[in-house]
Amino acid sequence: MKRLKLLLFTYVTLFALSGTSNANMDFLPPDDIVGISFWVTSMGLLAATAFFFFEIRSVNPNWRASLTVAGIITGIAFVNYLYIRNVYVSQGEAAILYRYIDWIITMPLQMIMFYLILSTVRKVPKSLFWKLLFGTVLMVLAAYLGASENIPSIVGFIIGIGAWIYLLYEIFSGEAGRSVARSGNKSIVNAYGSMRIIVTVVWAIYPLGYIFGYITNSVDDNLLNVIYNIADFINKIVFGFIIWAAAVQNTTQRSR
């Protein structure tokens, strides 16, 4: 009964936000690929948010924080996507800069996930938490300042890439990478490896978009929006389901 109430509360809250964001919204043309990509990603984020919060009580208590953060990530992205989508439908374009409102919150939370899942099986230094948090904030903030021309775009790119490379070092060879290698938990090792692939491969789309969208100006915003929508779908929804799968597997193993 508690799980059902939580699911209903999540849906009511998200649909209320959806109703507010959809006020006075123009209709989306059925042949608008950019607008459709916004819709598909928005609905995927909504479904994932409800699912993650619904599943919180199905996993071991030490996994609930990770699943809660996964739901927060998709929930924040859902609300922001509603706004960006409506801006696009009403104005015919949506500046990429709107996305940084989402990224400055959700991307640091995603990096913190590496710390959280490691904490379920072993003691992890709190310094790792702050390294991942500040490294990701610096990466996104530098990109935003460069994209908004508060600093030269090339300077923002260099700082952002440097922070991203540092994060990759940390999760592959640094403290986080060494901790997962010593965890001895197969499901966590597998989940951690999949998460690293997303942060390496899918996150690479963002600096590439920065190069083509701001430094060389060789790609228009509409194409970038479609690419970013696909990247966010994988980056947030698939990322969350990887963590959910690891949580379920660990819960099943302990219940035997």
Task: Explain the overall architecture.
The chain has a single domain (2-255), classed as Rhopdopsin 7-helix transmembrane proteins. Helix content is 81%, strand content 0%. The longest helix has 35 residues, at 221-255. The mean pLDDT is 86. The protein has helices at residues 2-21, 33-55, 61-91, 99-119, 126-147, 153-172, 175-181, 186-202, 205-215, 221-255. The protein has 256 residues and is an all-alpha fold. The chain has ten helices and no strands. The relative contact order is 0.13. Helix 1 (2-21) runs parallel beside helix 3 (61-91), helix 2 packs parallel to helix 10 and helix 9 runs antiparallel to helix 10.
* CATH domain topology: Rhopdopsin 7-helix transmembrane proteins
Order of helices and strands: HHHHHHHHHH
Report the helical percentage.
over 70%
Total helices: the number is 10
Please identify, by name, the CATH architecture: Up-down Bundle
Distance between the termini: 25 Å
How many discrete domains?
A: 1
The CATH homologous superfamily is termed Rhodopsin 7-helix transmembrane proteins
Structure summary, number of beta strands:
0
User: Uncertain runs with pLDDT below 50, 5 residues or more?
Assistant: none
Q: Output the CATH class name.
A: Mainly Alpha
CA radius of gyration is: 19 Å
Could you outline the blueprint of secondary structure elements for this entry?
Layout (H helix, E strand, L loop, with lengths): L1 H20 L11 H23 L5 H31 L7 H21 L6 H22 L5 H20 L2 H7 L4 H17 L2 H11 L5 H35 L1
Helix pairs in contact: 1-2, 1-3, 2-3, 2-10, 3-4, 3-10, 4-5, 5-6, 6-7, 6-9, 8-10, 9-10
